[in-house]
């Protein structure tokens, strides 16, 4: 499955104001990595937690980059783990302050949970998140407005191993699920707090590497698209896009 790529506005303007075509090497330099490579974005929610170091070790072995949607209250408990994720070159996203569904909260409460998490991650890592995932995948107009205010784009994911279901928490089953839902351009939702998911990753990464995949962050996957804060990406009109996670 290919992800639609758009030329950034600044680049489009630059091209429109020049009479001569850019040299071939210059055009190649601007081309998004995933336009020419088979990419998949693996994402892990609810951390940082007790299995994080094992997961980071596995990702490093396969030179894989991932996106971690972190919970503010856990970042507060584990600042060193949060810093280790960033130092390893992974992307950190905002997953609100705790597991409360934002659709059950007032506008002011949503603003505080997203805002407090944004500020804490920024303070802890020195870099402000640009991607957001709502707990349970549940969103409303308030979430859209507040994420837009903080410059965040919403990334609910395009597929999931369903490791949030207790009956799925078996290493072999989650390995099979991950390989089944994998696809070019997919954003796969998993949880680093599920030990069986972390234990399944060596086999999953080995198999997907053999299939020619490059493991990239969400921002790398979306590189070349014109992103609007508050909106949902990848394209929410995709058949597999809408998910609600327990």
TrEMBL record:
<dbReference type="GO" id="GO:0016810">
    <property type="term" value="F:hydrolase activity, acting on carbon-nitrogen (but not peptide) bonds"/>
</dbReference>
<dbReference type="GO" id="GO:0046872">
    <property type="term" value="F:metal ion binding"/>
</dbReference>
<keyword id="KW-0378">Hydrolase</keyword>
<dbReference type="InterPro" id="IPR011330">
    <property type="entry name" value="Glyco_hydro/deAcase_b/a-brl"/>
</dbReference>
<keyword id="KW-0732">Signal</keyword>
<dbReference type="InterPro" id="IPR002509">
    <property type="entry name" value="NODB_dom"/>
</dbReference>
<protein>
    <submittedName>
        <fullName>Polysaccharide deacetylase family protein</fullName>
    </submittedName>
</protein>
<feature type="domain" description="NodB homology">
    <location>
        <begin position="38"/>
        <end position="216"/>
    </location>
</feature>
<dbReference type="GO" id="GO:0016020">
    <property type="term" value="C:membrane"/>
</dbReference>
<dbReference type="Pfam" id="PF01522">
    <property type="entry name" value="Polysacc_deac_1"/>
</dbReference>
<feature type="signal peptide">
    <location>
        <begin position="1"/>
        <end position="24"/>
    </location>
</feature>
<keyword id="KW-0479">Metal-binding</keyword>
<dbReference type="InterPro" id="IPR050248">
    <property type="entry name" value="Polysacc_deacetylase_ArnD"/>
</dbReference>
<dbReference type="GO" id="GO:0005975">
    <property type="term" value="P:carbohydrate metabolic process"/>
</dbReference>
